[in-house]
Write a structure and sequence with these properties.
The complex is a heterodimer of chains A (163) and B (135). With 163 residues, chain A is mostly helical. In chain A, 61% of the residues lie in helices and 0% in strands. In chain A, α2 crosses α3 and α4 crosses α7. Chain A starts with 9 loop residues before the first helix and ends in a 13-residue tail after the last helix. The radius of gyration of chain B is 16 Å and the shape is globular. Chain B is α/β, with parallel strands linked by helices and 135 residues long. The chains are: A mainly alpha (163), B alpha/beta (135). At the A-B interface, α1 and α8 of A face α2, β6 and β7 of B.
Chain lengths: 163, 135
Amino acid sequence: MSGGPASQEPQLLRRLLRAKDRMDAASHEDWPVRRLARVSGVSEAHFARSFKQAFGVPPHRYLLTRRIERATALLRDTDLSITEIAFDTGWESLGTFGRTFRDVTGESPGTLRARTRTAAHEPGRVPGCFLSAAHRPDLTIAVSEKRRRQAGDITEPSQKEVL
Amino acid sequence: MSPGVEVVGLYVRDQDEALAFYVDKLGFHVHTDVRNGDYRWLTVQHPEQPSFQLGLFTPGPPVLDAQTAQTLHALVAKGAMPPLVLKVDDCRAAHDRMLARGVEFTQEPMDRYGTVDAGFRDPSGNGWKMIEARR
């Protein structure tokens, strides 16, 4: 299957963008493929592949980057507890949140909070919403793959499309 | 007339559709709408910003080849074009007004960074942030 930018119809891309927008607007919610496919008017069977072809990442990995981005902002900008932030950003357990956050960003939520608090600076004149997007993690590989590589075992790449 | 940027253009998938959106839903005025064969130069203007025109252009022949045009149409539809910011006096009021007219909001008005912002898209996929002017 060719992945060139012009190989998908603009009408389809516009509808896939709607699914991406909906995840952006409510990244704390559950977004099973069924729900995303319905937003886009695409069959469940084709949605994940179409989304990845359009935006370069599988839909649930995209959702994960948005959750981490939002958790990072809440850790930096609010006094909410880490537990509150974990549940507010869509994780079902504090343990999963902490582990995933560390795997993606390289530091624990608590460490990031302490570091950004001491390094607090005036964001200047960039509109906050764009500044936040600039700090989104660039997750080019699956978290499970990242874990495996860090563990020194890169012999068996994941065949499954997971987070 | 003071020197400065006069026109910045957006790519849109359909100029009639874009015109209806920016005029009927957002309240812009048509500044220029002239045709030369298949080419149509269309600009709109914010009612309170007479020195600036927003161009609504369709990528395609004769300016661009069909393949390039198709690529640009795809990029616009993916929301990959650069950020656009609309400044308003009252973000919530503008949101309610635009929502009633059928504008597709991507983000509800949100209090943050000392102001209120919301997000919407035009029918083609161009993404706008609507930010309330700081008082």
